[in-house]
# Entry
Amino acid sequence: MTAKIAILGASGYTGAELVRYIATHPDMEIAALSGNSKAGMEMAQVFPHLRHLDLPRLTTIEEIDFAGIDLAFCALPHATSQAVIAELPRDLKVVDLSADFRLRDPAAYEKWYGKPHAALELQKEAVYGLTEFYRDDIRAARLVAGTGCNAATGQYALRPLIEAGVIDLDRIVIDLKAAVSGAGRSLKENLLHAELSEGAHGYAVGGIHRHLGEFDQEFSAIAGREVRVQFTPHLIPANRGILATVYVEGEAAAVHAALAERYAEEEFLVVLPEGEHPSVRHVRGSNYCHLGVVADRIPGRAIVIAALDNLAKGSSGQAIQNANLMLGLEEGTGLRLAPLFP
Amino acid sequence: MTAKIAILGASGYTGAELVRYIATHPDMEIAALSGNSKAGMEMAQVFPHLRHLDLPRLTTIEEIDFAGIDLAFCALPHATSQAVIAELPRDLKVVDLSADFRLRDPAAYEKWYGKPHAALELQKEAVYGLTEFYRDDIRAARLVAGTGCNAATGQYALRPLIEAGVIDLDRIVIDLKAAVSGAGRSLKENLLHAELSEGAHGYAVGGIHRHLGEFDQEFSAIAGREVRVQFTPHLIPANRGILATVYVEGEAAAVHAALAERYAEEEFLVVLPEGEHPSVRHVRGSNYCHLGVVADRIPGRAIVIAALDNLAKGSSGQAIQNANLMLGLEEGTGLRLAPLFP
Amino acid sequence: MTAKIAILGASGYTGAELVRYIATHPDMEIAALSGNSKAGMEMAQVFPHLRHLDLPRLTTIEEIDFAGIDLAFCALPHATSQAVIAELPRDLKVVDLSADFRLRDPAAYEKWYGKPHAALELQKEAVYGLTEFYRDDIRAARLVAGTGCNAATGQYALRPLIEAGVIDLDRIVIDLKAAVSGAGRSLKENLLHAELSEGAHGYAVGGIHRHLGEFDQEFSAIAGREVRVQFTPHLIPANRGILATVYVEGEAAAVHAALAERYAEEEFLVVLPEGEHPSVRHVRGSNYCHLGVVADRIPGRAIVIAALDNLAKGSSGQAIQNANLMLGLEEGTGLRLAPLFP
Amino acid sequence: MTAKIAILGASGYTGAELVRYIATHPDMEIAALSGNSKAGMEMAQVFPHLRHLDLPRLTTIEEIDFAGIDLAFCALPHATSQAVIAELPRDLKVVDLSADFRLRDPAAYEKWYGKPHAALELQKEAVYGLTEFYRDDIRAARLVAGTGCNAATGQYALRPLIEAGVIDLDRIVIDLKAAVSGAGRSLKENLLHAELSEGAHGYAVGGIHRHLGEFDQEFSAIAGREVRVQFTPHLIPANRGILATVYVEGEAAAVHAALAERYAEEEFLVVLPEGEHPSVRHVRGSNYCHLGVVADRIPGRAIVIAALDNLAKGSSGQAIQNANLMLGLEEGTGLRLAPLFP
# Structure
């Protein structure tokens, strides 16, 4: 049986990436696409690269008949998402790609997002969408909150180390290099080609990036104590990809072992042999995350490097993976497209 | 039944692209990979983006047992290819991605490639691999010669116009913009990032590019008279994609009609509405070719713009499409991956 | 004596480029900078790369006391420029970088810019700013109209050929590849890094680009008859540079001779030996224009390729060159910075 | 009096960058250029962007008559440099851009460069070329050793902090993002446009990069004890620029004050207001280094970010600055070119 899918907010990059994956997914079919500011348009006008597909026209959310929909992906802006989902049928499965349901603590939400949460009941119900760590909950969930793309990358590098107790929890530095599509299709000066090309710069420097809310929540929960990491993202002149260089205090061999053991059965999390490290160009366009561990010359310190595609494994690929679970499908269905290189 | 595939010359970009497509092709399985200078290595070492796949180790060609192979893709350098194919079993189906069997006239081969052809019997047997125009011959062929990537782009724009007699055959200018992967993984100064990034320049200017041999052969055959086009390729700072801007003398409406009619049933050749024109970013990583026609302000002149991915539709995607036909499979099997954007 | 300079519209790319040149110009000093939407800000906030310079704060135009100003560069948007310049003191020397005063015929202006000109008296006074062809007029001018950057490139390639009568005037095709800074610092979707990087596409295809107004005006004036060229610009993923590939019917030797002779004494117009052709990466950041001529394989046809930096020789460099003449300075003063490569 | 300059190894990127600066330097004149593998060629053939300059032809080093030369820049490969300089006249002023004379301790040299130093007497004589910290020694020196480009960036961020005693010397992490021109014009697969564009990856991960030898030497000397930092460089898809993100334990205010005070009189070292941080795009093509300090959310931790152009301030610009001192010229002569943006 083919699941009928709606994508709310299909006119952004994560929406288009969902369509790309579903286009060759054997068990999903796109039944509705919304894009309020572009309602009435064909997807081919908004995203000519999808021109070859037979897709429904973009509508408003209100125009969608959710009776025939099995699952909705919600790729709307932060804050909008919670208002929209609150109005959806209560039995509709939803994978939300916004930040609205990632933080379980309403106070944390308000701290990082600057206003009170408007759908607290939904927030209680939502399951955090880091598939490999919340798999059973996701399978049973009605509402799954996709993680931040940076937050996913950092967690893949660090969760097994915290679980295994092989690193100093007070000395974690995540230096992250992010490609520009993570900022979405928004018209901002620093996202212009003329500004970014041949450039590179930090942003949200000093521990103010919102994905820190996710790190704090998750790492503290694992450790059973408060954990606060340093996290500095940088924008680099590339379209897709996140490379997180994580500095930890711990033995490289133990760090590597913790990752390798934890991910031994994880199809999409690939741990390289100790001493090797990944490149974003080798995961681009795919749902794979590559992880490497290298010992520093200073004894007792190690460097973990994780690479994934922010739009795929970091966002829409993760969303499909979660949807597969929620729909009772084999988890990796439709997600095994190889990276595009060069 | 799954076809067993060998890829000879798997350590180059077209080889890797074949692997990418076959990785999710339901009816093909990679049984052997050769890469002489890298024999003994794992593909994951040569192409880490393919690390998640369970692939045979690279060997020499001599080490391959062709008894169990249904079809070989030959992605070897020009001139090497003819020597290697001459030694393969005579009943092995072969799709050659080199230039060796594209030109039917031995004199034309010698003129454009600078030495006599060393496998004239094979050349006689080879079918020119522009799928949409040689489909029946390809279905019956043992040896198919993949076209040049630039040659494919130009022909998609022009063949229907010549067939339909709607343009002046003596006034055709093809100005082509090519991304750098078309030059392969070769270590040349002008292919360095520091040289090409923020650059753009013509190459083989003046009608000396070898793909002109294909244009001359094909266009003259269609027209029933000698046709000589102007063709100037340019290298642009991008990895994938060819954009051909073709200047013709003829009515835009007739030009558009000729393309639209000829390609009405062609899944991978997408003709845009008259007045629209394509971008390479909308076909990247896919087997689709987008074509557009715009009338010039000068009456009686039209501009045809064609965009495709040189490694996909221009080379390895085309090769898979041809192999599907040769193996009795549905032509588009495995080739419907959507473009990667952004 | 150091000339006091005002730059109106200093918060755009051409404004910043003027500042870059004047920063090391021995005979110019920046006395006032306007940027209406950013009035009150320091240039270092708008353009941090100019942070090391001691510059006046951005003001509104109204706040500038033009009494002490020798020359104003007007880098304002089209249409705004004519309104502003009409209000400036009548004896102030002005170099306008907008399109407002490029077309001598009011009807042509209205045709290409879509509304009547609002300062016809000024338009009559304005001198077209293609330095090497209007040098004496510019020296005596009060108001000089900077040319379009594409228009400059095409004219450098073609004017000497039309003057010398060595090409067919009815068969001229200009295929132009332009970097993105020519579009200014405007927030448009197609200028985003995620959209343009790895992309390339035509724009204003079909003979509708406004710089055609300049080609028509200038080429017709030289030829003494109406000349209409084909002109198709393309956007490529680079920040600076224009590469114009011009297809002409004429003997390459005669074409090359016409360029070489005409530019023999022109410091900034460099004609390469016949058979060589230029790259934009070799003129980036400089006031130099490189030109090459190659014979096509079809007898009687030639390809002229011209490369320049759209922000420098195509705009702000040209403006400085003209200002030098207007101020009685040596023409190339401050303009001999070498290109930045890589 | 104009100083006569020789550039040995002028066919690489640092050689070309020296020529770019000297082209508009009022007190230097290029008298000789060597490039052994390209001896006999014009610079315009090797670097067409320098075509407008009247330069001597490339020769072998042996062909140069050093009698008339005031100062030689030696831009030769590591190890070659020491052999060549040993053969130069003993009274010739030399600025070496290689790594050969950076490490004062022969054992350190052997450790990091893998073989014994072959010119120990010269090494004793050499002055380390970090201008702002060795100014007086450089003024008096005959032989100055240019610093590593990464080493310069890290030192600009850290030296004043170590001097001022405001950070924990055992907890320093330098995460560095480097553009590709730092690798020179060498033909390596990972420097190809098709490999690097849309990529980003670490290199020399784990504390094995040779510039650590410089950090160890300099920081230990300042601190009066052994200091070992963590240093992980990354290659990003850009041509020019180094962005170093330095994680330190110390109060941000004290860290900022230490930098601001130390560099208050340094023209080329620009400290941003506390809380701001730089981008490589704002120093490209210039001799300026921008530095910023931001407090982390974790009390007692700060992030210092430094940006410079590896070919300019990181190498050839630094070399010119040192040469100015050695020749008795004003230190910043010829180096005040503004950055190229966009």
In short: DSSP finds eleven helices and 14 strands in chain A. Chain A has a mean pLDDT of 97.
